[in-house]
Specification:
The protein is mostly helical and about 80 residues long. It has one domain (about 5-80). It has one helix and two strands. The radius of gyration is 32 Å and the shape is elongated.
Length: about 80
């Protein structure tokens, strides 16, 4: 069932065996019959999922600014209160 790895002139026989499933001739990737139809679907999915991703990033930036801006303005409010 297993076949010997080819030994070239000047190489030592290390006794390495390769199963037929690991043979490069039989392990070529076969194209799926519907792969041409699926190629455009990936672009559509990326385009549709990009919209909520950008929305989530915008929401995170807005919420972050809600915490940062009051912290930056607090010293000015304290100075105005003392004046």
């Amino acid at each position: 069932m297993n076949e010997r790895v080819g030994i070239h002139k000047g190489q030592a026989d290390l006794g390495v065996e390769v199963s037929p499933s690991m043979n490069s001739d039989t392990n070529k990737r076969q194209a799926h019959p519907k792969s041409k139809h699926r190629r455009g679907a990936v672009i559509v999915l990326i385009a549709l999922l990009l919209i909520p991703i950008i929305g989530a990033v915008a929401l995170v930036v807005d919420i972050g600014s809600m915490y940062v801006v009051p912290a930056e303005l607090q010293p000015y409010a304290d100075a105005a209160e003392l004046a």
